[in-house]
Specification:
The complex is a heterodimer of chains A (341) and B (273). Chain A has 341 residues and is α/β, with parallel strands linked by helices. Chain A has helices at 2-29, 37-51, 55-58, 62-69, 79-91, 111-114, 122-130, 164-173, 192-199, 254-262, 322-326, 331-340, and strands at 99-101, 135-137, 140-145, 150-155, 179-183, 207-214, 227-231, 243-247, 268-272, 282-286, 292-296, 298-301, 316-317. In chain A, the strands form three sheets. A seven-stranded mixed sheet of chain A has the order 2-3-4-5-8-9-13. A three-stranded antiparallel sheet of chain A has the order 1-11-10, covered by helices on one side. The chains are: A alpha/beta (341), B mainly beta (273). At the A-B interface, helix 1 and strand 10 of A face helix 1, strand 11 and strand 12 of B.
Chain lengths: 341, 273
């Protein structure tokens, strides 16, 4: 009898131990923040306050934005209204890398190109310049222009991976040209590794491409030391003759980084409009209600210290004129051809 | 906490009446190759990635060896688990994450309790390398959470033989806690940067890294010298090195211990017995 009782004690004890450990673990991990409209907006404000790097550069008073909007939040508000409030606050950061991802909407500020002329017409380019005589070498559209004297490369997205093979084929193809036009207009960015790979074929020695510093603490001035980013030359053949890059305001993020890197080279000019910017590498966090907020978290400058967040000015400013466009002429591309002749 | 200690003491002391004579006898040397399979329940919360805790089930696998005698307890354990996790907020959009853990630990413990004691208490140290990783589907760029401590730990092993349901069993508990470890965490922003990965290493101790691996296990010795073991394992990590990561994993495991005979035992001796 005594033995049975003891057996029961052992089993009951082990079960109790298990439930106690489970309770302990819950206590140690802690509870999640409250999922209320007020808590979500506060958490969002606080995250941006601690991690967004451009308040001073853009002269944004985030404290003031918080004071205006947080008191307006009521816990009775529905998701759509809370989303709109956060969207309104985010919009004031004027940053294309900043979004709120909810299941029913994606907030954005795309004024970095919406407020400016488009300066690119794909329809016109395809019919009047590319025709049928062009190659699609991986992600790179390319053809000869001006009786084979000039090479033209169009790269429409740095999200499309360019292989070493593809870039080498194109660089080899244009070895005997007078110059190359690289058209990255309306390229909204993508992977930085594609930037490095592309630039690596236009240099014959290690290039200090840009500098980066990251937020490393909650204070406004908590940044890592600016780190030099170098690009090493790669590929069998390099292209060291004149290069002209065509840009418009839709050149964002990795594309701006590409332009910044290439402008360190003496043989490179940029024709078109300012790039859209987007120098901060985006990072993200979730809110207590499960929405994800994305925001810039680093500062990128040229080696000379120019902050590229709001874009890079062209060497030669050129818009596409309405008259040219109506006549089927790409003013920016024509200007580049003229420069290389 | 008081309740917790009372339960542990009551479980161990309730076995007193079940103690058998064979326990006081000198323990034979035993060496085992171990394989283990089990189910996990993991809770993960990494403030660098989300304020939400993620929970879910997974599977765990171990291989290793174990050597125990009157004076020493030595163990090598290589393990890993994979868990599919979900946040409390299921908005059908970005509430999924995956938790991965692995570890390798070598433990050497010396028996400190007298041979006559019904409890066999071994204490000593461990060398360990472990990692807790998470993949957050809902995040952008900073999707990979991790901490990778490597270091030395204090460890203890307490066992007690008993008779239960007309069979001989061995009930034991094992605790491992790091004293000093070298730890890797993502940057403040949750990035894994190739260039600064090593910069995130740093010596941490109890104030920055609370970590323990606590096991309760009950062994059923089999007639062929092998053993079958049921393990309940609680592995908890609270890393405040960069941000704050808390990961708790509770695991139910079934372990097979395959007896490895000692070479010194000659066949002639056996026949003489």
């Amino acid at each position: 009898m005594k033995k049975n009782i003891t057996q029961m004690i052992v089993i009951a004890g082990l079960i109790s131990l298990l439930s106690t450990i489970t309770a302990c673990e819950k206590a140690l991990v802690g509870t999640d923040p409250k999922n209320t409209p007020t808590e979500n907006v506060r958490f969002f404000w606080s995250t941006i306050n601690e991690k967004y790097p451009f308040f001073d550069y853009k002269k944004i008073n985030w404290d003031s934005i918080g004071k205006v909007w947080i008191p307006r939040v009521r816990d009775t508000m529905n998701d759509a209204t809370v989303f709109r409030i956060i969207d309104t606050m985010l919009f004031q950061l004027k940053d294309g890398h900043t979004n709120l991802f909810g299941a029913f909407n994606l907030s954005r500020n795309w004024q970095w190109y919406l407020d400016y002329p488009d300066n690119f017409n794909a329809y016109l380019l395809e019919r009047n310049y590319l025709g049928n005589d062009y190659r699609l070498t991986g992600a790179l559209t390319n053809r000869f222009l001006d009786s084979n004297r000039i090479g033209y490369i169009r790269y429409s997205s740095f999200s499309s991976t360019i292989s070493d093979f593809a870039i080498d084929v194109v660089i080899n193809r244009f070895q005997n040209t007078k110059g190359i036009i690289i058209d990255v207009r309306s390229n909204g960015g993508g992977s930085i590794s594609n930037v490095d790979k592309f630039v690596s074929r236009f240099i014959d020695k290690k290039l200090l491409a840009y500098k980066e510093s990251y937020k490393n603490g909650p204070g406004r001035n908590d940044f890592t030391e600016a780190k030099d980013n170098f690009i090493e030359p790669e590929g069998d053949k390099k292209y060291l003759k004149p290069v002209i890059i065509l840009t418009n305001r839709r050149c964002y993020s990795a594309t701006t980084l590409f332009v910044a890197s290439m402008l360190n080279l003496p043989n490179v000019k940029v024709i078109g409009d300012w790039t859209g910017g987007g120098g901060g590498i985006p990072t993200s966090t979730q809110l207590p209600n499960g929405w994800t907020v994305r925001y810039s978290s680093s500062v990128t400058t040229t080696p000379q210290g120019f902050n590229i967040e709001n874009g890079i000015p062209p060497t030669i400013r050129q818009d596409m004129t309405k008259n040219d466009e109506a006549a089927g002429v790409d003013s920016i591309l024509e200007r580049a051809l003229k420069e290389l002749k | 906490m008081k309740y917790f200690i009372i339960i542990i003491i009551s479980v161990l002391y309730s076995t007193d009446t079940l103690a058998q004579q064979f326990m006081a006898e000198a323990m034979p040397r035993q060496k085992f190759f171990t394989t283990t399979l089990g189910l996990t329940w993991q809770t993960r919360k990494d403030n660098l990635f989300s304020p939400l805790s993620y929970t879910g089930y997974g599977a765990e696998l171990h291989v290793g060896f174990e050597r125990i005698n009157d004076q020493w307890f030595k163990q090598f354990d290589l393990w890993g688990n994979v868990n599919r996790l979900q946040s409390r907020i299921d908005n059908g959009y970005n509430s999924l994450a995956y938790g991965f853990r692995y570890g390798a630990i070598y433990t050497v413990n010396k028996r400190i309790a007298p041979n006559q004691s019904k409890f066999k208490l071994y204490v000593g140290g461990s060398v360990f390398h472990t990692s807790s990783m998470g993949y957050y589907e809902g995040n952008v760029n900073n999707i990979f959470s991790f901490n990778i401590p490597t270091g030395i730990a204090a460890s203890g092993f307490l066992s007690r033989d008993l008779r239960l349901f007309r069979r001989n069993w061995s009930l034991s508990t094992q605790l491992t806690m790091p004293i000093l470890s070298y730890n890797a965490r993502p940057t403040y922003l949750g990035f894994v940067e190739e260039e600064n990965f090593l910069e995130d290493f740093g010596i941490v101790s109890f104030n920055k890294l609370l970590y323990f691996d606590w096991r309760w296990q009950i062994d059923l010795p089999l007639s062929n010298g092998n053993r079958l073991r049921a393990i309940y394992r609680w592995d908890y990590m609270d890393d405040r090195h960069v941000g704050r990561l808390r990961v708790g994993t509770q695991t139910f495991l079934i372990q097979s211990l395959f007896n490895i005979p000692f070479r010194k035992v000659k066949p002639e001796n056996k026949s003489n017995q």
